[in-house]
Amino acid sequence: MSFFKPAFRHPELPTNELGFTKKNYEGSISTLCAGCGHDSISAAIVQSIFELSIPPHNIAKMSGIGCSSKTPTYFLGNSHGFNSVHGRMPSVATGANMANREMIYVGVSGDGDTASIGMGQFTHAVRRNLNMMYVVENNGCYGLTKGQDSATADVGSISKKGEPNPFEAIDLASVALQLGATFVARSFSGDKNQLIPLIKAAISHRGFALIDVISPCVTFNNNPGSTKNYEHVRDHLAATGTVDFVPMREEITADYGAGTAQEVTLHDGSVVHLQKADADLNVNDRRSALKLIKDYKAQDKILTGLLYMDADSQDCHETIGTSKKALRTLGESELCPGEKALQAINESLR
Amino acid sequence: MSSVAKGVKSIEAVNDFVIKFANVNGTGSASANNLFAKSIFRMGIPMSPKNIFPSNIQGLPTWYEVRVSEKGYLGRRGGTDFMVSVNPQSMAKDVKEVSPGGYFLYDNTKPLDLRLHRDDINFIGIPLMQICMDEYKDARQRQLFKNMIYVGALAALLDIEFDVLTGLIADQFKGKEKLIAPNVHALELGFQYAKANFECPCSITVKRCDNVGDRILLDGNTACGLGAVYAGATVAGWYPITPSTSVIEGFEKYCKRMRIDPASGQKNYAIVQAEDELAAIGMVIGASWNGARAFTATSGPGVSLMSEFLGLAYFAEIPTVLIDVQRAGPSTGMPTRTQQSDIVAAAYASHGDTKHVLLFPSTPKDCFDMTAQAFDLAERLQTPVIMLTDLDLGMNDNLSEPLSWDDAREYDRGKVFNAEELEAMSERFGRYLDVDGDGIPYRTYPGTHPTKGSFFTRGTSRDEYAVYTEDGSEYVKNMERLLHKWETAKSYVPAPEIISVEGGKKVGLIHFGTSKDATLEAVDKLAEQGITADSCRIKAFPFNHEVEDFIAEHDTVFVIEQNRDAQMRQLLVNECEINPKSLVKILHYDGMPITADTIAQRVKDVVQHDNVTPIKRAQ
Which end is more exposed in chain A, N or C (fewer Cβ atoms within 10 Å of the end residue's Cβ)? Predict the structure, then answer.
């Protein structure tokens, strides 16, 4: 935890297209441990949304319970946030999204909150293709209760107590792919260059966008023998390539080169550009993503980067056919059928 | 084929009897039985039908009981005057149930087991299966029309106006006219058979009267669903559970008719079938937090699962509308039987110090009105509002006053700052500040203003500005404010319905929900026996002062409820600090609705030595 945050900001701080500075997107001081990977993710979220020029109040921050779920306090202070109950953020986000489809929903969860207590709700939010970004800050352990193994801890990974984890790990990216997720990525909290474009793409994606971010726990899971300590993760990363996100308003100027490049145009005209490291990857092919995750895992590697996306996906509102207007903006005249209609109903019940 | 009671005189009744149908689940008997009940209703005679059904889709015994009461008593009476037995599985039990002098109509295609014979009731044998075998080739038709044949026979035996039946069939098959003639033909087969073989009508008959008035026939669950449509609910999260499922089905049925945007064809509502009850209530809380009117419906086991979230909604002050259609518990209990046994669980649902506003409807009109009111209350008070109905009210067609809606009515969306108000605000917005001194703070919807009014909603403690704190004094201040809000709620929730008899004040009957009909009938029964009793129908929790006054003003107060542990009495004792000895329990909890006799007998037992002159109940 850091205690100092300067109140003074340079008057010529850069502004985004809306005239907001980055400060308008920041939150309270983090109370997490110094060096926590989660704080880097919060910073990446701030940077991404600032650069995307989204009005801060157009975002709703959703979380469950745990270290990760505390973080929405530490970013986007001008956005409403909801720190709900353990493992149930997906349902609260679903309701919020049904009420107002015009806002952007940023969900932050952890590996306990998602892969254990919240597994049911997570899987159902995926299959409904709820329009939201769902970031898992994945450190393989329970931080707030002091370091128990979580369901994403690798078999044999040594905890701080020195005991190897005996159980198979749940791979959230693979689970999401199998359930039909329309955007799946994995990243590392220490790799801002990769994380920021992924967050931008996930926010712009229409539908459920999962980013499983490996975010080492500096206090309870950074010991030798843990497969989620900083050193191990850095040594075993393998990126799918370099990701670039080009917002719809900008022209593509970079020269990405041919052969191993893949471009995906989103529904709003934004473009995700992937300079692939592995020619076998096709981000439009779910099976290829699943296979690659397994192949790299077999080589003791963590595959990061964009794994899969379906740019034409239908979100939950389109599937169920709700009004284009946010439901919460409808008033009596649109919602209440009135006395005359009720009298006709009475008549049909006689 | 017919034998007449020898030992006892036949029951003679006009518009005052109980008829019961013993069927096999899943054989299409429900629509025939409904047709029968509705014909009585259309003849202007008050009646109340009740389904007594198993937790089964096909094959197990199911009963349908109709009380016909010209006087308008709609509670369950008990006893069976006329049994229509179409189920060999339950025949032995069904025969025993008929009151002496009553009737037992059965299918005598196979001869009656002689061991079932009774000398004191009338047996009416009709070869239902044989008639069907002779008339129809198709097995399904044989099964379905068998039901219509016994309804036709009843028309002759009970003197039901045949035109009323054919009119109902015409209504039912509007758009599928070719089905009208075969159904009417089946009715005629039964009618003619009865006319030819028995003295028609028998000694139990119906006779047209005008005691239904403008009342309608509707189940409470559909009324709740319709109430939610009128209240402007746009989001429903739910998980199927008997007996609440038809609340959301009712909501959807009327949404499909009345909530489709004419221009775009899109839905002005969203119904999400959740993965479980936890998610269902989570969706409601998320949607309400984000400014929509949202609700869910469940039964006891669902309330248990929703408890954690209810505590969050109470503490984070998020409007939450929950309809609990109670069934016999605990655990999965008897899912298809009725009870009022979730009262304590609902009142104090969740961990920590929590209590919730409860509403108790007694009729379908109440279900409609109170569902609409629940949204206003939830938003005004920023807290969960749980409506406690039950299977008897929810799943049975009930005679009800017609529904009505005041077109001038505006939804009470509670204290919400909009963008203009936030813009004009010079002081800092405090989500949990008690600005008006009524314990109810102001809230803002997400997305209202770019730089003002945002706050972080959490279950953990926070100060008046929604900033995280573990300071005990801030926590206490907040909890005290919530208690103050609870006091404020007493002035918003509906007052009890008190019926006072002139010269009363000695005996008071407190009742709620579906005990209403039986209680008011018991009041009349007691008056006939010289005991005058006032009644007080509780409509809401927290209790208004009128409830406390009623208890104080009566010498002996009975609390009538359909559970084992006297749960309403517990709430009264606990919340009004009443001496438990001053509240006498009247309990009934076998899964069937309570009867007036149960109530009257118990009251009589307690006050039998009192000498009170009978006085008519004031209307």
Answer: N
**Which of A82, A95, A128 is nearest residue B294 as measured by Cβ atoms?**
A95
In chain A, the percentage of residues whose pLDDT exceeds 70 is: 94
**What are the structure tokens assigned to A339, written together?**
């006395």
B383: containing domain: 218-400
Residues B354 and B237 in one domain: yes
B354 and B280 share a domain? yes
DSSP state of A18: T
Determine, yes or no, domain membership for B188. Answer: yes
Contact yes or no for A60 and B264 at CB 8 A: no
CB contact, 8 Å: A227 with chain B? no
Shared domain check, B180 and B35: yes
- pLDDT for residue B617: 58
Q: What is the pLDDT of residues B248-269, one digit of tens each?
A: 999 999 999 999 999 999 999 9
Rg of chain B on CA atoms, in Å? 27
Taking CA–CA distances from A127, the nearest residue in chain B reads: B275
pLDDT of B177 strictly over 60: yes
Quote the pLDDT of residue B5.
65
Contact A155, A168 (CB under 8 A): yes
Which chain A residues are within 8 Å of B44, Cβ to Cβ? Answer: none
Under the banding of pLDDT at 50, 70 and 90, the label for residue A256 is: low
Task: Give the domain-ending residue among B205, B238, B262.
Answer: B205
Give contacts of A350 with chain B, Cβ < 8 Å: 42, 214-217
CA distance B579 to A274: 75
Q: pTM for the full model?
A: 0.95
Q: Which residues contact A86 (CB under 8 A, 6 or more apart)?
A: A64, A65, A66, A112, A113, A117, A118
For residue B21, is pLDDT > 90? yes
Provide the pLDDT for residue A268.
86
Nearest by CB to residue B446, choosing from A60, A123, A327, is: A60
Shortest CA gap B67–chain A (Å) = 18
Interchain CB distance below 8 Å, B454 and A57: yes
Instruction: Give the domain-ending residue among B173, B205, B237.
Output: B205
Q: Which of A99, A121, A324 sits opposite B287 (nearest CB)?
A: A99
- Is any Cβ of chain B less than 8 angstroms from the Cβ of A57? yes
Residues B250, B395 within the same domain: yes
B259 inside 8 A of chain A by CB:
yes
Distance CA B122, CA B104 (A): 6
The total number of structural domains in chain B stands at 4
Are A121 and B282 inside 8 Å of each other by CB?
A: yes
**CATH of residue B143:** 3.40.920.10
**How close is the nearest chain B Cα to the Cα of A317, in Å?**
8
- Tell me which chain A residues have a C-beta less than 8 angstroms from the C-beta of B216: 346, 349-350
Residue B473: is it exposed, middle or buried by C-beta count within 10 angstroms (0-12/13-18/19+)? exposed
Q: Are residues B547 and B446 in the same domain?
A: no
Looking at residue A158, its pLDDT comes to: 93
Q: Do B280 and A80 touch (CB under 8 A)?
A: no
Q: Which residue has the tokens 């009014």?
A: B453
Q: How far is CA A268 from the centre of its chain?
A: 19
Two tokens, residue B541: 């929790």
Hey, are the CB atoms on A92 and B451 less than 8 Å from each other?
A: no
Q: Which two tokens stand for residue A214?
A: 């490996």
Residues B471 and B574 in one domain: no
β-pair partners for B2:
B124
B407 lies in a domain?
no
Looking at the predicted structure, is the pLDDT value of residue B511 above 80?
yes
Taking CB atoms and an 8 Å cutoff, what residues of chain B touch A323?
A: 261, 264, 266-268
B405 touches chain A (CB under 8 A): yes
Q: Is B618 a member of any domain?
A: no
**Subunit contact A94:B458, Cβ cutoff 8 A:** no
- CATH class (in words) of the domain with range A26-320: alpha beta
Give the H/E segment covering residue A83: strand A80-83
Q: Phi and psi of B27, rounded to 5°?
A: -110, 15
